[in-house]
Amino acid sequence: MSNAIEYAMLLDDAAVNATEVPQFDPEGRLSLDTAYAIQAASIQRRIERGQRRVGVKMGFTSRAKMAQMGLSDVIWGRLTADMQIEEGTAIDFSRFVHPRVEPEIAFILKRSLEGDVTGPQALAAVEAIAPALEIIDSRYRDFKFSLPEVIADNASSSGFVIGAWCDPHIDFSNLGLTLNIDGRVVQVGSTAALLGHPLRSLVAAARVSAQAGEPLQAGWIVMAGGATPAEWIRPGQHVSVDMEHLGSASFEIKK
Ligand code: OOG
Ligand code: MG
């Protein structure tokens, strides 16, 4: 386990300094429990620096993402307040190693949600839903990793952008969406890509969070996962997601 602390420090330093690290378990020999323990220890360092936990991100909840990264298990990571980028603002590229962006849908909870819940129970805990963008930025060289490695690296999470919150009492099971870079549509998809219905991603988030002893809290955000493959982003670009009925979310990267 002392190794776990060392890996946690390595990954946390890489995230803070926007540097890349070599893979330490390319064959994926570490157990998933160990991988999540590394993740927990690296996020604990952030919390000790004064960061605040604000929610959970789900990963590989769509076939498109699984296929792009060559992995097939749903994974999750921890969101902290410093990862949130205010919608419509411009950010520095220097905070990233080799960032990619993907279109997601976000939930914000009005009540805690714990353990094995049904879709309707999960929905009853949702305050609002919003179109969102996730910036993923693997700390591993060339964005290459095994399943335990990406879990240890907080599921590549780096930033997230959330559009205007909307009433969740619409049918959001199959909303069309586009990912746009500099006004060009670069990916087309649907919220149905997320396990057939994005609520299933929230149900999974409730289960894995409770299993980790950190049940979903009122006020927390849950990012449901990329609905399309991710796209590389570069300085000077304007990135947005447009989602049917829910509107859009965007950010820019400074030149
Ligand atoms: C891992 C993170 C996956 C998603 O939405 O599926 C993820 C990665 O692709 O680097 O965030
Ligand atoms: Mg994602």
TrEMBL record:
InterPro entries: Fumarylacetoacetase-like_C, Fumarylacetoacetase_C_sf, Hydratase-Decarb/MhpD_sf
Any matching Pfam family: FAA_hydrolase
Chain coiled-coil ranges: none
Domain Fumarylacetoacetase-like C-terminal, first and last residues per copy: 86-250
Highest taxon of source: Bacteria
MF (Gene Ontology): 2-oxopent-4-enoate hydratase activity
Alphabetical UniProt keywords: Lyase
Gene Ontology CC annotation, any one: cytoplasm
Gene3D superfamilies: Fumarylacetoacetase-like, C-terminal domain
Transmembrane segments: none
Keyword Lyase set for record: yes
Protein name: 4-oxalocrotonate decarboxylase
Record organism: Caballeronia temeraria
